[in-house]
Amino acid sequence: MAYFAKCLEVSWLAAVQDPPLALNFCPGEKFDTALFKDYNKRVGPYVEFLVWPALHLYANGPLLTKGVAQGCQQNPYNRRRFIPSDQSFTFRFEQQRSISRTSSEPRDTDAIPELSDPKRPSKVAEKLKELYEIEWKNALDSLDQSIPETENIKSLLDVLNDIFHRCKALARNTLMKDVPTAEYLTIEMIPQEQLSSQSRQVKAYFEKCVEVCWLAAVQDPPLELNFSPGEKFDTALFKDYTERGPYVEFQ
Predict the structure, then answer these.
(1) What gap in Å lies between CA 37 and CA 204, rounded to an integer?
(2) Fewer Cβ close by (within 10 Å): the C or N end of the chain?
(3) Any idea what DSSP says for residue 232?
(4) Where is composition skewed (Basic and acidic residues) in this entry (predicted)?
């Protein structure tokens, strides 16, 4: 399960690059030592089977990391075996997964979170706090100071609100919702016209909002951001910005 989760995380990070990174799953007939390393000792000039793909900067582009393949003395292509789809490991995994989801056994997500997991809910809360204390403050300072501060604050809050709801919608409709290890989501989900005219600090704020909101959205159950402080100031939920009073003027 950890391997599957990590495969999804790494593949997602590769897929959202521009252009996407490419994994080379086709080592060919001859063993290309420029692209692949030997699995065991050097055996022969032909590829018997692929162990691990090579990584390219883009399709047919420069090599980033070598793959791993097993060599052999004779061309093995005439004895390749076809694995029926209902016998493949992926098919059997998905079959077992669907069975386990309908069983009465406790789900893995009901277990106590691993304290070393940097993406557990408490860590997401820390990232949200850092977002407010660093990127939000820098972005606010970089905005037009001739505009009332409350308007700039509302604009930045609207950005967070919009990104959070986009991430929730995307997590509900993609495979990544099942992967709590997912760490990043492409900034391309934000229309480029919203970014082109923004300062470096505001762009950094946008990117951090995407990261934090995506981590919140892929938890099971998803974490929630409270954008409705209400009329009365609830000190159990909110801290004062600059002045204290019994009513909420703005969030």
Answers:
(1) 39
(2) N
(3) B
(4) 104-120
| Helix then strand then coil, % of the chain, to nearest 5 | 45, 10, 45
Beta bridge partners of 46: 30, 72
Distance from C-alpha of 4 to C-alpha of 19, rounded to nearest angstrom: 24
Q: Which two tokens stand for residue 173?
A: 């409709």
- The DSSP bridge pattern shows strands 36-38 and 67-72 to be parallel
Phi, psi of 196 (to 5 degrees): -60, -35
- CA neighbor of 212 nearest in space, from 102, 131, 91, 113: 131
Per DSSP, the residues of 22-68 read EEE----SB--TTTEEESSS---SEEEEEEE-EEESSTT--EEE-EE
Kindly report the pTM of this predicted structure: 0.51
Closest residue by Cα to residue 208 from 141, 144, 130, 137: 130
d(CA 42, CA 214): 45
The token pair at 43 is 């055996």
Report how far residue 42's alpha carbon sits from residue 77's, in angstroms, rounded to the nearest whole number: 19
Pairwise CA distance, residues 218 & 183, whole Å: 9
List per-block mean pLDDT (blocks of 10 residues) for the chain, which spans 251 residues: 82 84 88 88 83 90 90 70 47 51 46 56 88 92 87 89 84 56 48 64 88 84 89 90 89 83
Retrieve residue 136's tokens.
């939000």
